[in-house]
Specification:
0% strand, 87 residues, 5 helices
Length: 87
């Protein structure tokens, strides 16, 4: 009999499935623009920008997001962008 699966991978998988359903159309658009990016990373960006494709593309293109970046770096880059544009 195979060992039971832990709750964490199932929960993480459920979260990805939910995000994929919620952002299906924007995800497809980002995959066409950034084919080298992993689906999980694009979903993470889409969650951060609440599904906004144009904002996601802008932030990825300007380097605010990168594959495998931490949340603290993302938050700091976003805050810097807002502070620099608020003159």
């Amino acid at each position: 009999m195979p060992p039971p699966h832990s709750a964490l991978p199932v929960a993480a998988d459920d979260g990805l499935k939910t995000a994929k359903k919620q952002f299906n159309q924007p995800l497809s658009q980002l995959q066409a623009i950034f084919p080298e990016w992993k689906e999980d990373d694009l979903l993470s960006v889409l969650e951060e920008v609440q599904g906004g494709v144009e904002l996601a593309v802008a932030r990825i293109s300007e380097g605010s997001y990168s594959s495998f970046s931490s949340q603290q770096i993302l938050i700091r880059n976003t805050q810097d962008m807002l502070n620099n544009g608020a003159t």
